[in-house]
Specification:
Shape: elongated
Distance between the termini: 48 Å
Number of strands: 5
Helix content: 10-25%
Order of helices and strands: EHEEEEH
Number of helices: 2
Strand content: 35-45%
Structural class: alpha+beta
Length: 105
C-alpha cells in the first residue's frame, strides 16, 4: 500500500495565516484552533499558541492590529490533516507558515 502525503500549497499556508490573523486574542497573541478546507476535501487543522512581534511606526505605548508583524514565536503548535480515511500524512512546514504571517512594510 502506497503512503499518500498531502503537500500543502502556498494557498493553503496563506489561508491558514489569514484565519490566524482573523482570530487574534490581542494584537500580539493567538491561541486556539483553526481549520480550513484543503484540496480533495481534506481538513487542515492548526492548534497553536503564538506570540506576534509588531513594529510600531511611532512612539505609541500600545501595539495595534494594523502595526506590521515582523516576527513570530511559537509557544506550542500542532498540525493535523484529515480526510475521510482519518489522519493523513502531510508536509506542513512551520517556517513556511510563518512567512505568510509576516507582513511586508
Amino acid at each position: 500500500m502506497e503512503t499518500q502525503i498531502y503537500k500543502l500549497s502556498e494557498e493553503d499556508y496563506a489561508a491558514l495565516a489569514t484565519e490566524v490573523k482573523s482570530k487574534l486574542m490581542s494584537p500580539c497573541y493567538f491561541t486556539g484552533v483553526i481549520e480550513i478546507l484543503g484540496r480533495n476535501e481534506k481538513i487542515l487543522r492548526l492548534t497553536a499558541s503564538l506570540i506576534l512581534y509588531r513594529r510600531r511606526p511611532d512612539n505609541r505605548d500600545k501595539y495595534e492590529r494594523h502595526d506590521a508583524i515582523y516576527g513570530i514565536s511559537a509557544v506550542w503548535w500542532d498540525f493535523l490533516c484529515e480526510g475521510e480515511e482519518g489522519a493523513v500524512f502531510d508536509d506542513f512546514d512551520f517556517e513556511k507558515f510563518t512567512k505568510h504571517l509576516i507582513e511586508e512594510e
